[in-house]
Every structure is written in C-alpha cells, then in structure tokens.
UniProtKB/TrEMBL annotation:
It comes from Helianthus annuus (Common sunflower). InterPro entries: Dynamin (IPR022812), Dynamin_GTPase (IPR001401), Dynamin_N (IPR045063), Dynamin_stalk (IPR000375), G_DYNAMIN_dom (IPR030381), GED (IPR003130), GED_dom (IPR020850), P-loop_NTPase (IPR027417). Residues 51-313 form the Dynamin-type G domain. It comes from the Eukaryota. It is an enzyme of class 3 (hydrolase). This is Dynamin GTPase. Gene3D superfamilies: Dynamin, middle domain, P-loop containing nucleotide triphosphate hydrolases.
Length: 658
C-alpha cells in the first residue's frame, strides 16, 4: 500500500518521514553535490576519451517504453516526444536542486551554450540542437547534448538518456538503425562504473525485452541494473508477479511508476500516481518501497552516491596514471629544432647513442636494454650460429662403407713415374682439395646468415635511436646498409681466401695431429690381420666397424699407402675444421668491431651531412610527429585540469570530514 509518507515537490525532492534513509542521502546536497559537480566537469572535459570511465546512470529502453516520461517526471520539464525515435543523440541530463524559484535551464552542445528562458521551449531547443548534430533525417549520432536543469526541488542527478531501441527502420531511418543504436548503448553500459536504468513497459514480457537482453549481456548478475516499470495503469494484470519473482535478474530492484497524461501538471500527476498505487485493487498490493517517482528519485540518489563514492579513488588514480604516461610520452618526442647548430648537436647525439648501444650489445655482450627480446641477445645468438656451423662441418665427415676405396682411387689417379712405395705430397694435397671443396659452401653460408642477423640488429637499434626523427631514418638506414654490405663483401673475401689457403697447403703445428695420427696407425696390425679373419672386420676409433673383405685382392703396397693416406687425412682434417671455425669466429669479431667502432659512424656522417643535406631536413618536423605532439599536449592539458578538479574536491572532502 502507498501512503502519504512521501511528499514530492515539483517532480523532484523527496522527504520521507517514516523511512530511515542513510545519512549520506539525507544530506546529499551538502556532501555529495560537490563530488557530483566534479564528475560532471570531468564529463564536460570528455575525460572518457583518455580511457577514464566515469560513474554514470545510463537510461535505456525499447522505443516508446516511456523513457521520456520518466525523465520528465524527475526533472519537472517537457522533453521531445513522438512515435518515432525522439532521442537521436545521447542526452546528458544534469539535474541540480536550485533554491531560487526561477529555474535556470541551459543546453550545451558542440562548445555552444544556449540558455532557455521558457520551459515550454526546451523540446524545441533540443530538437534544433539534435538536427544540427545528427541532421534532418532520422539517423542518430554519438555526439552528446547536455541539458542542465537547475530547479527548486529536483534531485541532484546526472543521467544519460540514449535513443530507444528499434529493430525495424521507418521512413528515412538508416537500414542499420538497430546496429547503430545497440552499438551506442553497449558503449555506455559496458563499463563497470555505469548504472543501467532500464525502462520497461508494464505491457511487455520482460524476458524478451531487447533492453533487458542488452543489459544482461554486460551485467549478468544484475548488480548494476535498476528497472523502472512504466504504464502500470494500462497493464496492471500480473505486474505484481513480474516485479517480485524477478525472472530477469534485476539486482537493484524494480520501481513502478505512472506516466503523466496529457496536460496534467507534475503535481497533479504525482497525486494521481499516489492514488493509483494506493487504491487500485491490483497495484495496491505492490510494496510502497517499489512504487512512485519519489521512490525512484530517492533510489537513484542513493545509487549515484554509492557508485561515485566507490569510483572516486580509482578515478583519481587513473587520472594521475594517464597524466604521468602522457607526460612521459610527450617528453620522448624529439625537441622541435629551429637552427642548424641545434640540428647538428641532436644528430651527433643520435649517432653517439647508436654507436654506444651497438658497442654494448655486439661488442660487450650486454642485453639489459633488450632483456625481453632474445633476438637482441647478440653474443648468445652468434655463439649458437658458430656452434651450428661446427656441427655442420663435423657432420660433413662421411665414411664410405667400402673402407679405403676413395683413397685407392686417388692413388690410382695420381700415379706417376716415380720410385715404388713412395707416397708423393701431391697425393695428400689432391685428397685435401677434394675434401675442402666439399665443405666450402658452409663457411660462406655462415657469413651470409650471421651478417643478415647483424643487419637486422643494427636496423632495430637504428629505429629505436632515430625513430623520433623519421626524416633522418632513410638516410641513416641507407648508410648503415651500405657499410654493412661493404664489410660483408670483405668478410666473404677473407673466408674464400681461407678456403683457398686450406686447399694449397697442408700445415699445422698442433701436436694433436701427431698424437691422433700415431693412435690411428696403431690399428695397422689389426687391419692387416682382419683380412685373414672369417668376418674380415675390425673396429677403428672414429670409424666404427669396417669391412676389409674387398681389400684381400689389393696389393699390399696399395693397401699400405691407402691406409697411411686415410689416417693422415683423418688426423689432419680435424685440425682443418677446428681451424676454420676458430678463424671464422675471429674474423667475425674483427669485422664487427671495425664496423661499430669506426666505419658505420663515418658512413652515416658522410651520408647525412655531405651527400644528402640531412641536417637541414631535421628542421622540418614530420606531420606525424607534429600531430602526435598536439594530441599529447591536449591530453596533458585535459588531464591536468581533471587532476586539479579532483584535488579540489578531495581537499573539500578532507576539510568537511574534519
């Protein structure tokens, strides 16, 4: 039953004599009003574009659900109405209790401010502003209007009214009108800071209502959703069950209201509403805490105070974080150069920074600057490539299943007029040249691979050091590529020379050669005996089990020479492969230091200062950098102003609490 405990003055302020509302709500104007004003200032600054969501009561509902009537009753003013979409842009309604009997009504949009003197002109003013924003057609726009209503007796509330949901385009409405409206609604109701005021007609099935489906998709538990049921006098049957069973999971509850009819004054409408819920045989059964615009006003005030109090510390934190991040990003941008000397100093700083970084990661092996990028851990990556080369060279050593056949072929091809049993030096060199030719592509391939890696490293560091001056980047990239290519050519030449040296002579002072050769020759007696064995096999270190059956018909002199040649080459080949890897590693380090410590710097300076006039180009800031600077400066100004607003309100809270 509804009694006369509620007094509603001019559609707004509620005084309840019997219910004990929280002190925060009773003294709302004095304690929360400054905070609400601060949040509204942030909203006007459009701080949400910086990714800082604000606590907002978002009004949603299907088309013709009675949204406008509810807002009119709360504000005590008339809003645009009709059968089509009346709200075509977000309408931010800022209601403020005003002690002066003369209302102050202002419409703000697109940096304009229109003062509305006569209340009956509000709908017209909103209509004109909507046309200016969204055009003459029935299309919608996401650019908001702000209606500030300062009026005696209205609750201090800020709400955002969104277009009513419609699925079927009418007249010149866009074909995708549903997608546009639903997209706009989802943008507003998705943040956790948003409270969803879902306006439902009593005549519809709540479970199939489009606005309910949308709110449940972002607020499945319903803890952010309050439902307002309109047109209760038109569909009273079954309403009690609808609002008490809560089949659609409305966490903040239901409030049933009666719409103002025709030319009723707001006071008359409230009296009629009170009488309806008090005397109607069905509606009077609904608990009085769930009926009436006064109850709705109180409930919204309570909810708004709670959500603002809850979000305030996080808003302050996010503003500070965003401001600090924007200042850091702004400071990272290059200084706008205005003279050649300034450009020269900056250019030399870039070159010096590039050189220093490359020295650290390529020469010193440091990677702290690129700790999370393993490709920039250069010492480790180059060591892996050298190890891989060593394994590839070792795997190139393949032993023929027919033991000594290759050696005997070489002996046959190099046979000449000479003393018997004498193995000439040319035989060994012929064998050596063949083996070197077989692996000659591996060292060259290593150079191509490792140098390609180094070029990528240099390119990344170059972008990191020169990225703020994109007008310089092509010139420095060209110079870097040029010096790397020249050095690679020299590196390849050295490698080819190394390969050629290995072909033309056989020499080592490594004592391991004699040790290894003598050890292998120690198997000679076993080798000779194996040919008389039934299995004709023997085990030789480094070769495994070998079959000698095919050698029984070969002359003893040829067998001995082939065996000796095999063992000498095996012992010496180990030395050759090891020498190649060591030489490649040393050459790599040598050329890296030469490039980083001297040649790259000289090439870059020559290209930028002598060949291409790059210093002058540094004075022309690229449009992309200019635009980024302007955006960051705007962001910093906005966030600094937001910070000042929040600091003031926080100081006021501290003073009030004391």
């Amino acid at each position: 039953m509804v009694n006369n405990d509620h007094t509603f003055i001019n559609g707004g302020e509620v005084i309840n004599h019997n219910q004990n509302f929280p002190p925060l709500v009773i003294s709302y104007n004095e304690k929360i009003r400054p905070i609400l004003d601060a949040v509204d200032k942030l909203r006007r600054l459009n701080v949400t574009q910086e990714g800082i969501p604000l606590p907002t009561i978002v009004v949603v509902g299907d088309q013709s659900s009675g949204k406008s009537s509810v807002l009119e009753s709360l504000a005590g003013i008339s809003l645009p109405r009709g059968q089509d979409i009346c709200t075509r842009v977000p309408l931010i309604m800022r209601l403020q209790h005003h002690s002066d009997p003369v209302p102050e009504i202002v419409l703000e949009f697109q940096e304009k401010s229109v003062k509305i003197i006569e209340e009956n002109k509000i709908s017209e003013a909103i209509g004109k502003a909507t046309v200016e924003i969204a055009g003459n057609s029935k299309g919608i726009s996401n650019v908001p209007l702000t209606l500030v209503v300062r009026k005696r007796g209205v609750p201090d509330l800020t709400m955002v009214d969104l277009p009513g949901i419609t699925r079927v385009p009418i007249g010149d409405q866009p074909k995708d009108i549903y997608e546009q409206i639903s997209g706009m609604i989802m943008e507003y109701i998705k943040p956790d800071e948003s409270i969803i005021l879902n306006v439902l007609s009593a005549s519809v099935d709540f479970s199939t209502c489009e606005s309910i489906c949308m709110s449940r998709s972002v607020d499945n538990t319903g803890q952010r959703t309050l439902a307002v049921v309109t047109k209760c006098d038109q569909a009273p049957n079954g309403l009690l069950e609808k609002v008490t069973t809560n089949a659609v999971n409305i966490g903040l509850g239901y409030i049933c209201v009666r719409n103002r009819i025709n030319n009723e004054t707001y006071e008359e409408a409230r009296n009629q509403e009170a009488a309806l819920f008090e005397t109607h045989p069905l509606l009077s059964k609904i608990d009085n805490s769930m009926v009436g615009i006064p109850v709705l006003a109180h409930r919204l005030v309570e909810i708004q105070s709670v959500i603002i109090s809850k979000c305030l510390p996080e808003i302050v934190k996010k503003i500070n974080e965003k401001l600090n991040a924007s200042i850091v990003d702004l400071n990272k941008l290059p200084r706008n150069l205005t003279s050649i000397p300034d450009a020269m100093v900056t250019f030399m700083q870039i070159v010096g920074s590039l050189k220093e970084t490359l020295q650290r990661i390529l020469i010193q092996g440091a990677f702290d600057e690129y700790e999370n990028d393993q490709q920039m851990h250069c010492d480790a990556r180059m060591a892996e490539m050298i190890d891989e080369l060593s394994k590839d060279l070792q795997s190139s050593v393949k032993f023929s299943e027919r033991f000594l056949v290759e050696e005997m072929k070489v002996l046959e091809e190099t046979n000449g007029i000479r003393l018997p049993n004498l193995l000439p030096h040319s035989v060994f060199l012929t064998m050596l040249k063949r083996k070197v030719n077989n692996i000659s592509d591996l060292p060259v391939g290593f150079v191509n691979k490792v140098w390609g890696y180094l070029e990528n490293v240099c390119a990344k560091v170059l972008i990191d050091r020169c990225g703020n001056y994109p007008q310089l980047l092509p010139l420095m990239r060209k110079a870097t590529h040029c010096v790397m290519e020249k050095t690679k050519v020299k590196f390849v030449e050295r490698v080819v020379e190394m390969i050629e040296m290995e072909k033309i002579t056989d020499y080592t002072c490594d004592p391991d050669f004699i040790t290894s050769y003598n050890k292998l020759m120690g198997y000679r007696t076993q080798f000779l005996n194996s040919m008389s064995n039934v299995n004709c096999t023997l085990n030789v270190e480094g070769f495994g089990t070998v079959n000698t059956r095919h050698l029984s018909s070969v002359s003893a002199n040829t067998r001995d020479q082939a065996y000796d040649l095999k063992m000498k080459m095996t012992a010496y080949w180990k030395i050759v492969l090891k020498r190649m890897v060591d030489c490649l590693a040393l050459q790599l380090r040598f050329f890296m230091q030469k490039v980083v410590n001297k040649e790259m710097e000289m090439e870059i300076v020559n290209e930028v200062m002598v060949q291409s006039g790059g210093i002058e180009k540094m004075l022309d800031e690229p449009p992309s950098v200019t635009k980024k600077r302007e955006l960051l400066q705007t962001s910093v100004r906005l966030l600094q102003e937001s910070k000042e607003i929040m600091e003031k309100v926080m100081d006021d809270i501290v003073v009030t609490s004391e």
